[in-house]
Structure formats: structure tokens, C-alpha cells
Amino acid sequence: MPLSFRQVGPCFAAEVSGIDIGKPLTAEEIAGIHEGMNTYAVLVFQAQFIDDAQQLAFSRSLGNLEEAIGTGLRAAHEYRLPTTFADVSNLDKDNKPFARDDRRRLFSIGNRLWHSDSSFKVVPAKYSLLHARSVTSKGGNTEFADMRAAYDALEEETKAECEDLICEHSQMYSRQLLGFADFTEEERTRMAPVRQRLVRTHPVTGRKSLYLSSHAGNISGWPVPEARAFLRDLTEAATQREFVYIHKWRVGDLVMWDNRQTMHRARPFPVHEPRDMRRTTLVGEAPTAAQAGLSHVA
């Protein structure tokens, strides 16, 4: 059965059939997946009951892995998974759900804001691949927004205003939106802001998209209140229903998305139910902007 795609989102996102990602991919399958990502930006692979080694092999066949080091508040001795995975679960190293007031859990609530993975890194992420090992009885959906369609819908005057803007991204910006400001000096240094272009052009399709994220807290050369109001307005426009696909997770689902072309956010789920989600991430090609003249996070 050849690789095929069925669109499931309003203007993007597709379910993939005709492939077993637990087996080595052919060159044709690899090329087909990249082509599907260029077109749909989000791909859903259902009923893929794979283990860590198979997820890593599938991910590496598509590009170079980004190491998940220093992106959360788990100390090294608290890691549940190797750093080839971003642990997007609510579980501690003993596979027990975090307590409601656990600092690590409170930090992870920032994932409920619209964002792009690793936009707070100098070289931001390309693809993210999230596999569901266990899901909760309700909630926990992931919503995706098509930043290409959002850019296309902007008025020409707004497109022109956005074209050359540089934003500053930090996990501290996103967490402060939720009232989480309890950072150590080491964390403040590690999470220092980086610069990213607000408008990105896809290297293959040439299509432009907005590069938005809750991690974006300033626009270079703008007063902070004006920058944040402008970014908030853009985010509201970009996450309207006609640009959003909602994925309802089932065990075995693997969802893959292009962080250069989409934003996403997690939705709430029961606090005390285990939710085991494991993400592999492919590193991007290069910085989107030169790193100089950064402001400090308040």
C-alpha cells in the first residue's frame, strides 16, 4: 500500500496511511513524508505501537535530533527519559504523576499557551514528533494553528509591518504570562532571550508564515507594552477556528509537526491521571536572526 494522506484540518493537517514507522523507511517513504510535511505541516500516524528505539530510528531517518537538555525544570538526576527525548509527560522518574503544586508541573503548564517548540533556542526546532504511550480519561487534546494561512490572511499593510521585525524569545516570557516567575539565577542565565524573525520563508515551498510563540516577549527596537500588544493581536488573529486543527489523542498515535509553519498548545487534563507523551525533535537548519543587542528579561 503506497503512502497516502487525508486532510483532517480546516486548511492543513493530514492523516497518513500506508506506512509502518516501526520499520526502516525506504528512500521513497522518507521523501514522501517530507513532501507531506511541506504540504500539510502536521501529519498524524495512527496505531503506531512503537518503543523508544523505534521512535528514535524513525526520527533520525528524517533529520538530526535536538537534545532535550535544559528546557525544563527537571534536574539531571530527575530525568525519566534519555535526553534524546523531551519528556512531555506529567510523570516523575518513578512514573508517578507530579503533585498539583510541584514546581516542575507548574512550569509545564506553559505548554497550554500557543507556542513553537524551541523558539527560545538560537537554532529553533524543525520537526517535533510526539508519541502517545498513555492518555488520560478526558482532555489533553493538542491544538495546532497554521501560521502560513494566518500570514496569508493578514492585510497587506500588516504584512509589510511584520516583514523585517525581530522578536526576542525566552521561556521566562511565556511562564511569566501565567504568573510563574520563581526562577533561580542559573535558570535566568540559561533562559536568556534569543532573537527570531517574525516572518519566516519556507526553504522548499517559498511560502511565508508568521513565527509566533508565547515565548516571544519583545520586538527589537519597540517599547515592550506596544510589542506585547502587537504580538497578542497577531496571535489572536492566527489562532482563529478556521486555522486550527484539534487532535484528540489515542494510545499509539504519533503526531509530527513543522515548528517553522505552525504553533500548538496542549489542553488541560485530570491532574492525578498519568499521561505519558514522548517527543523527539529535529533541529532546525540555522538561526533565523543574528544574536546581538538583546534586552534582559524582567
What does this structure look like?
This protein has helices at 27-40, 52-60, 103-108, 147-152, 156-162, 171-177, 185-190, 224-238, and strands spanning 4-7, 14-17, 42-45, 86-87, 125-134, 142-146, 166-169, 194-197, 199-201, 208-210, 216-219, 244-247, 254-258, 262-266, 276-283. With 298 residues, it is of the alpha+beta class. It has a single domain (4-90, 97-283), classed as Double-stranded beta-helix. Strands 1-2-3-13-5-15-4 form a seven-stranded mixed β-sheet, covered by helices on one side. It has a three-stranded antiparallel β-sheet with strand order 12-6-14. A three-stranded antiparallel β-sheet has the order 8-7-11.
Brief overview:
The chain is built from eight helices and 15 strands.
Secondary structure blueprint with pairings:
Layout: E1 4-7, E2 14-17, H1 27-40, E3 42-45, H2 52-60, E4 86-87, H3 103-108, E5 125-134, E6 142-146, H4 147-152, H5 156-162, E7 166-169, H6 171-177, H7 185-190, E8 194-197, E9 199-201, E10 208-210, E11 216-219, H8 224-238, E12 244-247, E13 254-258, E14 262-266, E15 276-283
Parallel strand pairs: 2-3
Antiparallel strand pairs: 1-2, 3-13, 4-15, 5-13, 5-15, 6-12, 6-14, 7-8, 7-11, 9-10
Key traits:
Double-stranded beta-helix, alpha+beta, 7-stranded mixed sheet, 8 helices, 3-stranded antiparallel sheet, 298 residues
Order of helices and strands: EEHEHEHEEHHEHHEEEEHEEEE
**Range of helix content:** 10-25%
Q: What percentage of amino acids are in beta strands? A: 15-25%
Would you identify the regions where 5 or more consecutive residues have pLDDT less than 50?
none
CATH homologous superfamily placement: Clavaminate synthase-like
> For the largest beta sheet, what order do the strands appear in spatially?
1-2-3-13-5-15-4
